[in-house]
Amino acid sequence: MKKALKILAVVLALVLVGTVFAACGKKATTNEPEANNQGTETKLKTVTDGKLTMATNASFPPYEYYDGKTIVGIDAEIAALIAEKLGLELVIEDTEFNSIIPGVQSGKYDIGMAGMTADEDRLKDVDFSTSYAKGVQVVIVKEGSDIASLDDLEGKKIGVQEATTGDIYASDDYGDDAVVRYANGGVAVEALKSGKVDCVIIDNEPAKAYVAANEGLKILETSYADEDYAICFKKGNTEIKDAVDKALVELINEGKVKEIVDKYIPAE
Ligand code: GLN
Predict the structure, then answer these.
(1) Alpha-carbon gap, residue 211 to 144, rounded angstroms
(2) Are strands 59-60 and 64-67 parallel, antiparallel or unpaired?
(3) CB-based burial of residue 243 (10 Å sphere; 0-12 exposed, 13-18 middle, 19+ buried)?
(4) Which terminus, N or C, of the chain has the lesser number of Cβ atoms within 10 Å?
(5) The whole model's pTM is what?
């Protein structure tokens, strides 16, 4: 609960800052004038001219995952609409979750979008957009597990995706030694199936997808933490942040973001 309140406070602050920035943000232009509805002469400086380069970790359904060789999902679709509004071509680069923030900081990517929680600690390293979706950290266990609630996690081996909020919170609450870090959710779930860990803490939507795809797993009813997802930017890169945030806020107000989320997460 404490965590939820902390995150809520950060997100409210971000929304306020985002709104102010969005209100006075520079307008972006494009190489393809017909795709640009912003109508100014300013040209948005991106990592690669004319492109919006987004870093993600494409093992996080339904936010980002592979359909054949193409990365699809909620984030991919929202980012495509943002790029379109800015008159840029979207390029999605798949990398470890752990490499997204360093890559954004070093100027390798324009944005990081990966079901990423606007977490207070990350604000030291990157700036965040307005939040566009909610996440919940949940616990996956094997059916028949003796873990029935969060209280039973004490003394257990907890699998997480390295450097995610699940990792950060579980390490804080249950100690570093209890936490086993994996490169992505899929590998963590394999470790649960083969008994290397007793549970996996991960975001609720990928958790649902992993449980649906694997026999003998279930999600605990009590959730672990509530979160807000946002796009991250290099600290101080207000030009990209303002332009992307403005486009994102427009998409939220136009109902486009909800449409995309509802398409991938049908109401139960
Ligand atoms: N929401 C979690 C975080 O930001 C997990 C994101 C992910 O694994 N793609 O840490």
Answers:
(1) 14
(2) antiparallel
(3) buried
(4) C
(5) 0.83
Strand-pair partners of 140: 200, 219
Which are the contacts of 142, defined by CB distance < 8 A and separation ≥ 6? 192, 193, 216, 217, 218
Per-residue pLDDT for the chain (268 aa), expressed as one digit of tens each? 445 545 545 444 444 444 444 444 333 333 343 444 444 446 899 999 999 999 999 989 999 999 999 999 999 999 999 999 999 999 999 999 999 999 999 999 999 999 999 999 999 999 999 999 999 999 999 999 999 999 999 999 999 999 999 999 999 999 999 999 999 899 999 999 999 999 999 999 999 999 999 999 999 998 888 999 999 999 999 999 999 999 999 999 999 999 999 999 987 6
Output the ligand 1 site: residues, CB below 6 A: 57, 60, 97, 114-117, 135, 161, 164-165, 203, 227
Cα separation, 96 vs 229, whole angstroms? 18
Contact 207, 140 (CB under 8 A): yes
The residue among 227, 238, 149, 143 whose CA lies nearest residue 193 is 143
Q: 194 Cβ partners below 8 Å, 6+ apart?
A: none
**Which residues are CB-contacts of 171 (< 8 A; sequence separation ≥ 6)?**
178, 179
Q: 41 CA distance to ligand 1 centroid (A)?
A: 37
In testing the pocket of ligand 1, which one of 94, 121, 128, 165 has its CB within 8 Å of the most ligand atoms? 165
Q: Identify the CA nearest to 73 among candidates 63, 83, 82, 81.
A: 63
Query: From the CA of 252, how far away is ligand 1's center (Å)?
Result: 21
- 219: which 2 tokens? 């999600």
First and final C-alpha spacing in the chain: 25
